[in-house]
Design brief:
Blueprint (H helix, E strand, L loop, with lengths): L6 E4 L5 H12 L3 E6 L2 H9 L6 E5 L5 H14 L5 E4 L13 H29 L2 E6 L12 H21 L4 E6 L7 H5 L4 H14 L5 H14 L3 E2 L4 H11 L1 H16 L5
Parallel strand pairs: 1-2, 1-4, 2-3, 4-5, 5-6, 6-7
GO molecular function, one term: oxidoreductase activity
Protein name: Dehydrogenase
Family: Belongs to the short-chain dehydrogenases/reductases (SDR) family.
């Protein structure tokens, strides 16, 4: 795919992976909508891009009315949206003690925002000849996330929804791409440490499992995956071997994760 002249919407693009993807798309000639709950951060990203090639939008991407407004404005200013990157996410640390509010926020931002965006875009893409839906999920959606039940569950759901989209619409001109990195140097990762013992466990699990990548590395992998029509985009290639090991012997994998959790939490005798 040649991104020159394409119209892309990137959510959660004020910082981190989203900002890196927005910049990478712009470098390739795309018109970019930089959406974020933090409007000032989104505007800073736009200020770094060629004048007239992007605009910032402040709002909650789990709100369907905001998503509709976002896509409508993109079409008015640049043309029909052809690439949608569902990147906005929350960590949602906690286990059985996580509040209903934490669960609702995790599911709304990490999953339902994807569903709501697809409901808006897929019918248009079917009518107009296609488009690309990019779900920024997580390796936690293929494996799990120690220390965070809401994150694990919502990211598994994000992967499942992306799979369903690809199966249902992949033969009808819709490209679907699911991105599952491990550790990336973003506020989302670093803020996990602030979530008490479980947040600290989540942070340790991610940062000790493999290299912590720069957001630009993930952006490069995403654009290459879109170009090649790849569904499962793995900025950390080792995730595939971990996933294969999980599927080959589930009980052994769960035992290994229990051992890893004890080791990271410093349980006696570990």
């Amino acid at each position: 795919m040649d991104f020159d002249g394409e119209v892309a919407v990137v959510t959660g693009a004020g910082k981190g992976i989203g900002a890196a993807i927005a910049r990478a798309l712009s470098v390739q000639g795309a018109k970019v909508v930089v959406a974020d709950l933090d409007g000032a951060a989104a505007s800073e990203v736009v200020n770094d891009l060629p004048k007239g090639s992007a605009f910032a939008a402040e709002g909650d991407v789990s709100d369907e009315s905001f998503l509709q407004e976002l896509c409508d404005r993109a079409e008015r200013e640049f043309g029909p949206v052809s690439v949608f990157v569902a990147n906005a996410g929350v960590i949602g640390a906690g286990g059985l003690d996580a509040s209903e509010g934490v669960w609702d926020l995790s599911l709304d931002v990490n999953v339902r925002a994807h569903i709501r965006a697809a409901k808006i875009l897929i019918p248009k893409w079917l009518a107009n000849g296609g488009g690309h839906f990019v779900s920024i999920a997580s390796a936690a959606g293929l494996l799990t996330q120690l220390g965070s039940a809401p994150y694990s569950v919502s990211k598994h759901a994000a992967v499942a929804f992306a799979e369903w989209l690809a199966v249902t619409y992949g033969d009808r001109g819709i490209g679907v791409h699911c991105v599952c990195p491990m550790g990336v140097n973003t506020d989302l990762l670093n803020d996990a440490q602030l979530g008490g013992d479980e947040g600290e466990l989540a942070f340790k699990a991610v940062t000790t499992a493999g290299a912590v990548l720069d957001p630009a590395d993930v952006a490069e992998a995403v654009l290459e995956g879109i170009r090649t029509g790849t569904f499962l985009i793995l900025p950390h290639p080792e995730v595939l071997e971990m996933y294969r090991a999980k599927s080959a012997d589930y009980d052994r994998w769960i035992g290994g994760m229990r051992w890893y959790q004890k080791k990271l939490s410093g349980s006696p005798g570990e």
